[in-house]
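User: I'm putting together a teaching handout on how sequence relates to shape, and I'd like one worked example. Could you take Extracellular solute-binding protein from Eisenbergiella porci, show the sequence you're using, and then write out its predicted structure as tokens right after it?

Assistant: Happy to. First the sequence, then the structure tokens directly below it.
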Amino acid sequence: MKKKIIAAFICLCMGASALAGCGSSPAATENTAPAVKESQEQTTPAEESKTQETTAKETTSEEKEPVELTLWVTSRNSDDWSTEMENKFLEEHPWITLNKVVKEGDPGNEFYQAVAAGTAPDLVNCSFTMMNSFMAAGILEPLNQYTDNWDEWGNFTKEYTDMFTKDGTLYGLPSSVAPMLFGYNKALFKEAGISEPPKTWDEAIEDAKLINNPDKQITGYATLAAEWTEWFFQYYVWQAGGDLTKENEDGTAELTFTDPAVIEAAKYYQRLRSEGVLQSDLTLKFSDLVTNFGLGKIGMMPFAGDWVSEAAANGIDPDDIGLSLPPAGPSEDRTTAIAGICYVINAKIDQAKKDAAWEYIKYYCSKEYLSSYFENLATKGAPNPVIIPRDDMSVTDFYDFPEEYKTVLEEAKSVGRLEFYGKADFGSYVDRAVQKILVDPNADPEKEFAEAQKQCESEALPAFNEANKR
């Protein structure tokens, strides 16, 4: 049943726990029920089916050794539906028990250190950003042995599964995908006499000038300046026709902080500042920007599809949230990033746990589970325009989104890419350079990024290349 978007906040988390952990490899025994003895009492087909199902479960439970899976979960509240789905998993897998350990923040990003310390969960749902580092470190269990025998595997979108496949080996199963798009406030655009979102960098600045209204505390354009600046900045580098790093064939990285496209992106940032259309308070953090967008104080900004419900919770009419591909830079390219999370199994655990971990992943990534998940969200009326990484279903099957959302989600599949290679290791150096050119109007982008590259090459690059060289 489709539902119209209303202003309510729902955090998009897959599974009974948002960020879970556990691991193991494929079950060795087949679930076959023994022959049922003939009874003089006549049974109906339904009763016979139920008897066979019960017997099969009992047989399975007897054949399999008990396994306890350790998961990292956040303290986010779960509803009756998620509890029901977890209980269903446990009923179908009576040999598996769950040891849920509360882990706040982003558990997926702490997985590497925990594996080294021997305190990691058996599986985890981690961000796409961390996957290159995790794959190179050898801490992820190959999943081919499981997916090759899974009848649903052929329905997963190859564009996304290929991102986590190295030399034919799959290491992560995508569970949700959120493309980074460009958000704009339709009401502010209409007030300013603007009929459509900007298609180029120049158009974006001109539109921002028309929207900017300091008296009403409305800023025409916003981007990250206080934290994680490399996150948004990379999109502008791509749109200028370059990148911040280069991945070599042997898995090592080459820094390209001084690429002409990087300097073009930096100069555009400076121009946003000098033209007076960027947020005046450069100390605003990510959550502040999303909140201010929801309060109607920002005309446009980089904006992911899964922030829609959060913005709506802050007061904006969901119908006023416009989404498009980002404006094109000098390269006339509108490339953006694909973010998301995927399930991985801890390679350092024993085989029984790996097998049990796969059963957990298979359950929470199945079409049956995902359909129930989105149907449950529909009853709450708070959907986000995200991408389900399967070809046999779409989020638009469950909600009535604006037509432009459907279009932009489809477009994002062809222009989306993973974040720049080595971002987790090199991002902080880019971050500092971006902050300098924003804070100091006289800063020289070429000088700042050259110094950032030199420092990164000295402090971070050698260890990264040693760890990632194939």
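A couple of points you could highlight for students: The chain has 18 helices and 14 strands. The first strand starts at residue 3 and ends at 4.
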